[in-house]
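Reopening this ticket.

The earlier resolution said the output was attached, but the attachment link was broken on my side. Pasting everything inline this time so it's all in one place.
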Amino acid sequence: MNLSVVIPTRNRPSYFARAMSYYAQFNEIQLIVCDSSEQPFTAEIPKQVSYHHFPKASFVEKIQSILPSLAKDYVVLSADDDFLLEHALIEAISFLSDNPTYTSVQGNYIAYYNLGKTLYYLPLYTQRIGKSIDFETPLERIASYWGSGIQLFYSVCQKEAFCQVFQTADTSIRSLNLLEYHIGLTALLLGKNKYLPVFYSVRELISNSAGTNIGLDVLVSDPNQAVQYEAFIAGVSTLFSVVQPMEKDHEGIVRQQISHYLSSENAKDFYRVRDRNRRIKRLIPSALRQLIYHAWLSFNRKKNAQNNLRISSMYPGFPFGNPLEESRLKRIEGYILKQK
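Inline output:
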């Protein structure tokens, strides 16, 4: 497969080992691991894995460090707790090869909660299903990005676009949300995005697994976030001026788009729910929240299984009720349940 799979990881050796074991079976991929743990991974690493240890490096720093090592024409990031499906990656590469105006492709996600010996599955990011951003101009594409629910963080990308996306990211950017916005906007400045109706990825739902997570509303207004926020604006605006030089005041356009999004009802509703959920979390201890949620999942198991089948019947590319896709999910389940 003409693909480099890049796995960023930090202080999660069991997840890292599981991801290596899973991806090592893929046909002819380049597998690169960027580990920012304080101590290097000491267990056996498969021969086909290129392991790079960058102690305490930021996400941007460690990805930038491995860019010269990319040897394939297409690249995808995979979180150490994700499982990207091989057939979906092949389909994504085929689409990008046949459609050079597109620089990124993704598909349908499902999530799972690990309840011990049992896994509970549900469709993830359902608001994104089928949404592609395929306008002809960079300005139209980034304007349509805000509020779309689409994130391009773990999309399959053309290598040149992937390198440009991270080369324009400032190392001062530490917020995961801000990095997601940078990746989404810069990738769309470089080309179109396609959402394929294909079973693409399985993701574990773990509280706070992604690291620093600050909302855009805070990033815009908090003086303590000004350095990374201004670096984000500068990086996006600079690339915008390169790909669409006839536009004027590229920085002003980006700032105006952000302001318009944050003042929209969709954004206000999103942040209102977020703030309410945070207040609830502060009142209920984490362990108790987990017990309540697991009990709720078990109680509603039958109802939610029916909902999974309903969504699968509405949208192609989900595994529920599809024997071939269910067999693929079953193989992934084997990796999940044997993790130590």
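Reporter confirms the inline version is readable. Residues 178 and 216 are 7 Å apart (CA to CA). The two ends are 30 Å apart (CA to CA).
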